[in-house]
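Input sequence (228 aa), recorded before submission:
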Amino acid sequence: MKQQIGAKHFTSENDFLEKFGAVALEKQRNLFEVTGDLSWNVNMDTEEITFGDNLTFPIQVLGSFSHSSETWLWIWENKAGGYAESVMKQALLLKQYGEENNIDLLTVGKFDAVENDLHLIGMIAVEMFNASGYYLGNYGQGTMVVSIKSDTIDKVESEDFARILTVFPELISTFEIQNHKNAFTNYLSQKGYELTSNGDEIKAEKNGNVINAVFNEDNLLTKLNGNS
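Predicted structure, token format:
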């Protein structure tokens, strides 16, 4: 399968989080619905990840985090690994995208990192390549980050309304996002909600469900509730 960057565009880490962060995070709920707490195993020869005994999905490897040095290493920078180029297509395309848009996160081969960086890298790959989710595989000495594509995961049915009320607060509490209002507006628009704005308040409506969000003068969320 040919990997290519989609039509989505962002120019910084914050820009990505405001535009696509919530949708990317929501896909992780679908992934967990399917894989739960099952054990995992990656086969680099077949470029697949298996959960439990029989859930096997194709992967792209993005890189790995060393627990001892607390550094991130992109797979294309891991010269000692001897990995096939086919398993790093997404990582290489992200590097190219980072070079074109001056995004250090995607172009610096090795850097000091924290766990949120791993999630952000996974989320970027998921959205830019329309993947089904990303997985952080802890193998003891480190954590490998892979993106996964599977119709089984994509077809998970979820309660849209309840998800939004948990996913959005999770996003803004996990990542430092400059403009919560932008992130909320983008998220709900992508979910097909009709938005009306009244000063610092945004009302989102879809199929009889109503979500109200209130923001302060710095565009940070102060209140979120909904009813169906």
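Checked by second reader. The first strand starts at residue 40 and ends at 43.
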